[in-house]
């Protein structure tokens, strides 16, 4: 394997040494800086005396005037040169450019346009290398020549071995249509939103690089006033009502025309027989024809017949790799090393900055351009690069050089992810995470994490947690935390592992599954020797688990006391969360007393909870956390409702809904809708249709399990008697996490009511 030139490496290392030295200035302290500065000034004074000792007076006057001006200009020029170019704001993925002069595909293009007008949804299928994407892009340009009517989603994910899941595909499509992707729990939840976003717009949505029909089977069969084009290499057969437009090999004359376009008509005309043989060798694949043509164009002195003779001596299976191997041999050192590193990556594509980080140099633009010119890599998704399929897995896996390159890549992604997480929810940060979140998940999921990457992986996982919480993508939150826990365990970093286990516990509690949440809590707790050493978050999770798993109020109270003691001084948000949980404990105890016929005592506890919640609300406002404020408002609404103050309950519930909506917390908003439906049901004058509408809006946004989900199905079963059995089954399934373990009285009461339907 060849190395990057010594000059390039020396330049990069000197730059890095300078940055590291500058980073340690603060360690000198004020006294150290003054000492060093005074010494430098004394040396400067002696040097000036020696230099100007023999200068005439008039020359000294000129120097006094000109030297500061020259120094200022020189400093400005150097700083301007060193300042990195501002990163361009990331916009939604643009539609690919029109393909000029597509060869040999006129019939297929016309059929796509005809079927789009007739059917609404068109599927274009072809083996790898047949130009499926190019044909689909050109057809969409013909259907909608205006950029404002084009919508594009590239569904080729960063994982080489696993295609994107249907849910991930649906989320990507919703983002393309400017719809919140976290609002869906299942792929089919996106169908109605796609219809609503496209109907009557005249837009054409192209879903490119689809790998299986199961990824897009949730799509509507027709959207009035719009078109959908699905393009890719489908590994499974679509249903009978879908007739894919098959792309086969190019006809011989079209293949010759495509090859001649790259090598020139004159060169092609000099040896038509050799040209024909080359087309035959490429098996009519546009991708292979372009690769051969580019190599020949870069080697004008090679006769076509010479290449044909070389290919004839090889087995058929080796003929295409032969030309590509010739191209690799001609690469310059930096391009060759980048190609080898990219070919061995566990992720399929990276952006140009990440490619430079792999090499350890400031820029890899020239190397990428050289590889792209020979067809060894593809420039996809604007500034992203992807190794062609023929060379995947042929890299430097497991070598010290590959390990060092991977470590640089992980640190690069950690820095980028942390920086953009700090900017959320700004549009630029959203656009970056929308492009990179799957790649970051793949970085976390590497089977054997490189040594000394634990902290960088933790920063990546922290950034993904911020992003996925913003988008309410709880499955991805769980996956990121699980991958971090696995990596931290492999690297022996118990602190990071405990954080990841605790994060999984929190997500599962949000999903209403206390049994699985308890398993992750136990793993996190086992990594801390004594209860006294638990961090604050572990005490809070313990209290939440105890509250979800039974009515042991004394134990919950003890856990909340320990949580308050573990909080750092001045942690306003932590205190707000503690008070909200104290209020929830008081309200749960009041519900238990009320169930046992002790109404006055229950009312007193509800009143105390209301006072505590007003304190929690004030702290949440001071902390500037809309999620904590929304939760306090939600609990306040319930406290007022139990106290018979329906007007105040409605006001707080409406404000909680507004805050949850602003924070894109669909689960929180859905809980509020269930509360509102329950309050309406207690009003004798309620309208059943209005209550059903609220519950139907809430149900798809609720987690698969939990009290709120079971309560929603209980209400729906009573209001829609014709589907009572269906809602009874769904409600009992929502309570299944408590099967075989201790459960609160409210869960037991819900179970009894569901079984009594």
Characterise this structure.
- 64% of the residues lie in helices and 5% in strands.
- Among the domains are: 105-246, P-loop containing nucleotide triphosphate hydrolases (Rossmann fold, 3-Layer(aba) Sandwich); 269-330; 335-395, Orthogonal Bundle (Arc Repressor Mutant, subunit A); 399-492.
- It is mostly helical.
- The termini are far apart.
- The longest helix is centred in the N-terminal third of the chain and has 26 residues, at 57-82.
- The chain is globular.
- The protein contains 33 helices and eight strands.
Architecture blueprint of SSEs:
Layout: H1 6-23, H2 29-52, H3 57-82, H4 106-119, E1 121-125, H5 132-143, E2 150-154, H6 166-176, H7 189-198, E3 204-210, E4 227-232, E5 245-246, H8 252-263, H9 265-270, H10 272-281, H11 286-298, H12 304-312, H13 319-329, H14 333-343, E6 349-351, H15 352-359, H16 365-373, E7 377-380, E8 384-387, H17 400-423, H18 427-444, H19 454-471, H20 474-491, H21 494-510, H22 514-526, H23 536-548, H24 553-566, H25 572-595, H26 599-623, H27 626-642, H28 646-662, H29 666-681, H30 688-698, H31 707-719, H32 724-734, H33 745-755
Parallel strand pairs: 1-4, 1-5, 2-3, 3-4
Antiparallel strand pairs: 6-8, 7-8
Organism: [Actinomadura] parvosata subsp. kistnae
Keywords: Membrane, Transmembrane, Transmembrane helix
Transmembrane segments: 21-43, 55-78
């Amino acid at each position: 394997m060849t190395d990057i030139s010594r000059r390039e490496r020396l330049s990069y290392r000197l730059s890095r040494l300078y940055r590291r030295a500058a980073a340690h200035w603060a360690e000198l302290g004020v006294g150290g800086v003054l000492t060093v500065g005074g010494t430098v000034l004394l040396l400067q004074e002696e040097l000036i005396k020696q230099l100007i000792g023999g200068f005439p007076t008039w020359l000294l006057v000129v120097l006094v005037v000109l030297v500061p001006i020259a120094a200022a200009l020189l400093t400005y020029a150097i700083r301007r040169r060193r300042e990195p170019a501002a990163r361009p704001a990331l916009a939604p993925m643009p539609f690919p450019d029109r393909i000029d002069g597509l060869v040999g595909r006129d019939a297929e293009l016309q059929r796509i346009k005809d079927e789009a007008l007739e059917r609404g949804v068109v599927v274009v299928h072809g083996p790898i290398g047949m130009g499926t994407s190019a044909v689909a892009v050109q057809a969409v340009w013909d259907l909608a020549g205006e950029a404002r009517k084009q919508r594009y989603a590239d569904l080729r994910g960063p994982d080489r071995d696993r295609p994107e899941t249907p849910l991930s595909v649906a989320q990507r499509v919703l983002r393309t249509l400017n719809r919140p992707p976290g609002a869906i729990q299942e792929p089919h939840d996106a169908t109605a939103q796609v219809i609503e976003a496209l109907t009557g717009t005249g837009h054409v949505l192209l879903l490119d690089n689809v790998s299986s029909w199961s990824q897009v089977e949730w799509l509507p069969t027709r959207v009035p006033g719009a078109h959908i084009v699905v393009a890719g290499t489908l590994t499974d057969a679509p249903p009978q009502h879908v007739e894919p437009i098959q792309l086969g090999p190019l006809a011989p004359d079209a293949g010759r025309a495509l090859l001649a376009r790259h090598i020139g008509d004159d060169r092609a005309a000099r040896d038509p027989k050799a040209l024909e043989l080359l087309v035959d060798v490429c098996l009519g694949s546009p991708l292979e024809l372009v690769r051969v043509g580019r190599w020949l164009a870069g080697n004008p002195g090679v006769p076509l017949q010479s290449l044909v003779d070389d290919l004839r001596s090889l087995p058929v299976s080796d003929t295409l790799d032969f030309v590509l191997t010739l191209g690799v041999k001609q690469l310059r050192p930096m391009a060759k090393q980048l190609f080898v590193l990219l070919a061995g990556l566990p992720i399929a594509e990276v952006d140009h900055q990440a490619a430079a980080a792999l090499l350890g140099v400031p820029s890899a633009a020239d190397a990428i351009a050289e590889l792209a010119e020979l067809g060894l890599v593809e420039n996809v998704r604007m500034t992203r690069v992807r190794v062609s399929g023929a060379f995947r897995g042929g890299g430097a896996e497991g070598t010290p050089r590959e390990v060092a390159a991977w470590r640089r890549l992980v640190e690069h992604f950690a820095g980028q992810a942390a920086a953009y997480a700090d900017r959320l929810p700004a549009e630029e940060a959203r656009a970056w995470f929308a492009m990179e979140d799957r790649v970051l998940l793949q970085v976390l999921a590497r089977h054997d994490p490189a040594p000394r990457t634990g902290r960088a992986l933790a920063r990546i996982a922290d950034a993904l947690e911020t992003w996925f919480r913003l988008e309410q993508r709880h499955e991805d939150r769980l996956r990121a935390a699980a991958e971090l826990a696995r990596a931290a365990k492999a690297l022996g970093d118990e602190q990071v592992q405990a954080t990841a286990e605790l994060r999984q516990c929190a997500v599962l509690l949000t999903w209403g599954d206390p049994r699985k949440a308890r398993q992750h809590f136990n793993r996190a707790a086992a990594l801390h020797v004594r209860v006294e050493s638990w961090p604050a978050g572990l005490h809070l999770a313990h209290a939440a688990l105890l509250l979800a798993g039974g009515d042991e109020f004394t134990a919950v109270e003890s856990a909340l006391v320990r949580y308050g003691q573990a909080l750092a001084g001045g942690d306003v948000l932590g205190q707000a969360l503690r008070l909200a949980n104290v209020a929830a404990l008081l309200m749960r105890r009041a519900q238990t007393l009320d169930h046992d016929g002790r109404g006055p005592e229950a009312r007193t506890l509800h009143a105390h909870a209301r006072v505590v919640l007003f304190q929690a609300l004030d702290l949440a406002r001071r902390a500037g956390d809309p999620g904590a404020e929304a939760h306090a408002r939600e609990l306040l609404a319930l406290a007022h409702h139990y106290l018979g103050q329906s007007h105040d309950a409605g006001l707080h519930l409406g404000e909680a809904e507004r805050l949850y909506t602003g924070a894109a917390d669909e689960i929180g908003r859905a809980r509020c809708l269930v509360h509102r439906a329950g309050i309406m049901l207690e009003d004798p004058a309620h309208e059943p249709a209005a209550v059903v509408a609220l519950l139907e809006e809430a149900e798809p946004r609720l987690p698969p399990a939990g009290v709120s989900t079971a309560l929603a199905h209980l209400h729906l079963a009573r209001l829609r008697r014709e589907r009572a059995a269906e809602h009874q089954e769904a409600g009992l399934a929502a309570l299944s996490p408590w099967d075989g373990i201790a459960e609160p009285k409210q869960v037991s009461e819900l179970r009894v009511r569901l079984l009594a339907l």
